[in-house]
Amino acid sequence: MITAPPQHPNILLVDDNRDGLLVRCSLLEEVGYSVQKATNGEEGLKLFNSSRFDVVVTDYRMPRMNGVELIQKIRKVNPNIRVILLSGFVEPLGLTEENTGADVVIVKSSNEAAHLVRWVKRLVNRGASRKPPTPQPGQPAHKRTGGR
User: What pTM was computed for the model?
Assistant: First the structure.
């Protein structure tokens, strides 16, 4: 009996910055993910509604529909979808997992690529559970933003 090869996890990548979109897409494809790209939130939502994704990675600042609005809309379709929010303004805007609906918020920085690959892998492997692990009492939550 011939079995199909294991399917690569499918990632939806949404960013209005075409250069950033191409770099992140290449990075994720290099490590073995299948990536579909959208250049704005509306396009991302259409793709999300027409395909199955393991993880959504979205920029925060985009015209017409920002990343948080996109997260809210896709969570209505699939509340368990794993989502990473990227922004260069995490600290100034006070973006957190709690106030954005994302599973992980990552600062766009020189460390972004390593954080993105690590968190996509963790979220793909996490399964249907959407909540990140709760820190133990007396321990700070693990730093997701890559620091500034």
Answer: 0.82
